[in-house]
């Protein structure tokens, strides 16, 4: 977040390959640190170049976090600039033939606090992270804005995976 260096998750290719072998629908997200439109395009192209070898069946999501920390290179950016960078990334992903999706936490999206959600939600699928005390399937997502996916916990468990796993509900499906 402080240097803006593109870094591949060391498990990305293996996870993509193994998920496909197991018949699991696959999507990806990119953790952005862009501060210019050119950097957002570079991030999107880098992501697409990495995933072009795989059968991506779910969206390619733009994730941007930590921008409110003074140590983040994105700290000086305002809501309009952050939103424009997300749009640039997501439009680039769409131009490459992938379904774009915007990901962020509920508190950042509520009342357009950190993002212009009226613009983002009108153009792209939205994936919200919100971890209420009582969660799926007991209650629906507590984010009132338009959204297509809900990440309801970061402490889920999946057989065969050690440690905590993010758990999500998708309100859409692809054939």
Which features would summarize this protein structure in a list?
175 residues; single chain; six-stranded mixed β-sheet; globular
Compact description:
With 175 residues, the chain is an alpha/beta fold. Helix content is 30%, strand content 19%.
Describe this structure in words.
By secondary structure, this protein is an alpha/beta fold. Strands 1-2-3-4-5-6 form a six-stranded mixed sheet. It has five helices and six strands, in the order αβαβαβααβββ. Helix content is 30%, strand content 19%. Helix 2 runs parallel beside helix 3 (79-95).
Q: What characteristic shape results from the CA principal axes? A: globular
Helix/strand/pairing category: alpha/beta
Cα-to-Cα separation, first versus last residue? 36 Å
Q: What profile does the largest beta sheet have? A: 6 strands, mixed
Series of H and E elements: HEHEHEHHEEE
The count of DSSP E runs of length 2 or more, i.e. the number of strands, is 6
